[in-house]
């Protein structure tokens, strides 16, 4: 059983989603957005750090998954996004969480089945996968999709390792992979 915090970084709105993975079952714990609502970047980064720290204290996740930076058309926007992302990562590391990074295309491929899916498709599939009664707002849905992607990648890595090692060493393999994942040694992208 693992609690996973997913983050969709942004300098004005940072989405978050928290799920619990129990074997093959995923359980929704919470989601929302950290809205900075100020103009100067240093204050926005301070609010992102405080918001992520508060979420970590509230939900006590064991793993932190975040979207990788993508190439943007506007260099200034890309820099601000990178700073917001770095701030969220620092909050996680300061709470001793292992950090996992996923490309947006991989997240969409995992959750929707199409790497070029749009936000509405991601929202729809997150709602279905987590059996939610309401559709989460776009930033929260993206963060939940990142957490779901990490849960699937963790489960897949365990299944592959167990199959490679055989049934006799299943417990040993599972313990080894959990130890490697707890140190954040995996970085997946497409």
From TrEMBL:
Keywords: Cytoplasm, DNA damage, DNA recombination, DNA repair, DNA-binding, Endonuclease, Hydrolase, Magnesium, Metal-binding, Nuclease
UniProt keyword DNA-binding present: yes
The organism's place on the tree of life at top rank: Bacteria
InterPro entries: RNaseH-like_sf, RNaseH_sf, X-over_junc_endoDNase_Mg_BS, X-over_junc_endoDNase_RuvC
Amino acids binding Mg(2+) 1: 8, 139
GO cellular component, one term: Holliday junction resolvase complex
Enzyme class name: hydrolase
Textual note on the cofactor: Binds 2 Mg(2+) ion per subunit.
Cofactor: Mg(2+)
Functional description taken from the UniProt entry: The RuvA-RuvB-RuvC complex processes Holliday junction (HJ) DNA during genetic recombination and DNA repair. Endonuclease that resolves HJ intermediates. Cleaves cruciform DNA by making single-stranded nicks across the HJ at symmetrical positions within the homologous arms, yielding a 5'-phosphate and a 3'-hydroxyl group; requires a central core of homology in the junction. The consensus cleavage sequence is 5'-(A/T)TT(C/G)-3'. Cleavage occurs on the 3'-side of the TT dinucleotide at the point of strand exchange.
Family: Belongs to the RuvC family.
Protein name in UniProt: Crossover junction endodeoxyribonuclease RuvC
Native source organism of the sequence: Mesocricetibacter intestinalis
